[in-house]
Amino acid sequence: MPLLASTTTRLDHLLATAQRDGRLPSVAAGLVRGGELVWSGAVGTVDGRAGGRPADADTQYRMGSITKTFVAVCVLRLRDAGRLDLTDRFGAHVPGSALDDVTLEQLLTHAGGVQAETGGPWWERSPGGDWEALVAGPVGQRFRGGRRFHYSNVGYAALGRLLEVHHGRGWADVVRDELLEPLAMSRTTTRPAGAAAHGLAVHPFADVLLPEPEHDAGAMAPAGQLWTTVEDLARWAAFLGGATQGLLSEQTLAEMLEPHHVVDDPGQPWTGAHGLGWQVWNVAGARYAGHGGSMPGFLAALRVRLDAGVPAGGAAAGLRPSGGDGTASGSLGAAGGAAGDGVVLLTNTTSSPATRTLASDLLATLAAHEPAPVQPWSAGGDAGLLELVGTWHWGPAVEVATVVGEHLVLGEPGAGRGSRFRRVGGDVWEGLDGYHAGEPLRVVRRRDGSVSHLDLASFRFTRTPYDPTADVPGGVDEAGWA
């Protein structure tokens, strides 16, 4: 559905104002809703000079560290194919470096303590060598693996090498064959091709420009080499929102979006964390995922709201089972198509304060002036589950069970121990959220087939407080309530 003319006018004005006030040579952005690019805009010229070629949605920019999300997805595809485990040591697959004992999960989540940058010259502005030259740099760990979050470009160089060892070809070929071509991202390449913006630095105190170098980063390329367009990056935002086209299971995508390690900035509240390749944020109770990108001459951003704007505990809160092994997740995953709006942003400047809030401002403008369509309610529940709904008691505490879609909901997810459960067979259910994620819930029946009680990970839920007929562990005082 096209946006209202008044909404596009506001978005265009916001983008133009940011370009002017931030002194951006050019900037291009797009908004994604329902897996489709619903708005795009571009302001400025590719060389930052009056009369130059105007930027548009098909102009290539370097995406920088958003490249890491493609590498991470390819690693998870290897895991799902049974060719590795996330608990494996890196040296079990790529031996012979100081990173041998770091696990693959730690590399994916920036928790391996691996040094942030290389041991050589500023790699982002210098042509790169091969893997052997990189590890001879030398490279190593700054912290014990698993201790804390420490962003590492070198760690993703290692994951790129992992892809090459397993596939027998370059990491970029793997990304192209497994992701870019199936998603029709034909304008995403390792070097600029066709219409592309020039990487530029803008002088902080004068309106003059300095070209930034463009090169092949070699072994460091998996940390930030890819170039893309607004139209292509919007397809990747749709992928993050659940439109994976069968390239990744919804369980694995949800697992990637779980917060693994908090990004701890001293003096700041915890609002960000890192999942398996993706950055995740909790902003005023709303969950987002995506990644930022920065290379000399370029800044980029991708962000998708995961909960589709549904309040915690709502009927469509976007919570999905996770884990490649079938385990459950408490994260607000987008894999089931429940994700909300997304934004992509590309600009060709090395640094500008205007980009710090522009992506979120575009999302907020869309939400404020173009509310997402509301899906009407209709009956479609399973009447056979009515015997499970209503009031239950955990000791004297009162809990209410409801059925929402295919899930049994006990209590209020996000509050206390409230959880959703999915049926895994017969009278056996599995928790999806919070305290009871992954825990079994059994429906215990009497000899006549009627429901006696619920056994949730050894806790008894009975129809009346401490029902003496429901086999309450520890027994119930024979004198009863008095």
UniProtKB/TrEMBL annotation:
Stretches assigned to the DUF7586 domain: 383-463
Keywords: Hydrolase
Record Gene3D superfamilies: DD-peptidase/beta-lactamase superfamily
Keyword field contains Acetylation: no
All copies of domain Beta-lactamase-related, residue ranges: 12-361
InterPro entries named among the record's database cross-references: AmpC-like, Beta-lactam-related, Beta-lactam/transpept-like, DUF7586
GO MF term (any one): hydrolase activity
Protein name: Serine hydrolase domain-containing protein
